[in-house]
């Protein structure tokens, strides 16, 4: 994690002073104003927009999310109204970086970061228990295919008895 923190420091200083280096050696997205910064970082430190570069950029999003979550009491971590904006910010941050680097989003990397977030912050949150639907709906769901089987068998028998195969 020490390397990630060092990179985040470099990233933040790089982000605050947009470098106008030479032309990029790869295509860069233009959807967000910070795309030039992200692409320049990847070119300067990785040579191109690799998943390693994206991973290090995502660590900035994760650091921001962690800081925001730390501002809450741990009892509030399970209150969606209190964490939804932080969650959305992380999602937007990761998506914008991927869009800038022209890497598909969602991807396996961002999924790992979301799993990390969930295992760290939301693992103790209660989840709604799944329950069976009411008996009338269960009966309809079970009896419908059971009743269709004899109908389908009857149709097949009638079709083969005809013998002409055209009806």
**Alpha carbon gyration radius:** 27 Å
Q: Total helix count?
A: 6
> Overall 3D geometry?
flat
Distance between the termini: 71 Å
Share of residues in strands: under 5%
InterPro entries: RAMP, RAMP_sf
Organism: Cyprinodon variegatus (Sheepshead minnow)
Transmembrane segments: 136-158
Keywords: Cell membrane, Disulfide bond, Membrane, Receptor, Signal, Transmembrane, Transmembrane helix, Transport
Nutshell version of this structure?
The radius of gyration is 27 Å and the shape is flat. Helices cover 66% and strands 0% of the residues. It has helices at residues 2-16, 35-46, 51-70, 80-100, 108-121, 135-162.
Structure keywords:
transmembrane helix, 167 residues, signal, membrane, disulfide bond, 2 domains, DNA polymerase, domain 1, cell membrane
Could you please describe the fold and organization of this structure?
There is one protein chain. The chain has 167 residues and is mainly α. The protein has two domains: 2-121, Orthogonal Bundle (DNA polymerase, domain 1), CATH 1.10.150.510; 132-167. It has six helices and no strands. The chain has helices at 2-16, 35-46, 51-70, 80-100, 108-121, 135-162. The chain starts with a helix and ends in a 5-residue tail after the last helix.
């Amino acid at each position: 994690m020490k390397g990630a923190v060092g990179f985040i420091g470099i990233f933040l200083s790089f982000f605050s002073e947009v470098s106008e280096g030479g032309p990029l050696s790869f295509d860069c997205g233009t959807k967000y104003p910070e795309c030039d910064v992200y692409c320049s970082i990847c070119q300067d430190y990785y040579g191109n927009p690799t998943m390693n570069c994206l991973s290090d950029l995502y660590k900035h999003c994760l650091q921001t999310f962690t800081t925001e979550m730390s501002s809450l009491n741990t009892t509030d971590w399970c209150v969606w109204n209190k964490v939804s904006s932080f969650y959305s910010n992380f999602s937007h941050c990761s998506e914008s970086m991927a869009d800038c680097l022209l890497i598909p989003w969602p991807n396996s990397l961002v999924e790992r970061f979301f799993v990390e977030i969930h295992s760290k912050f939301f693992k103790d949150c209660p989840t709604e228990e799944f329950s069976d639907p009411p008996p009338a709906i269960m009966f309809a769901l079970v009896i419908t295919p059971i009743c269709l089987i004899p109908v389908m068998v009857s149709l097949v028998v009638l079709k083969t008895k005809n013998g002409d195969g055209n009806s």
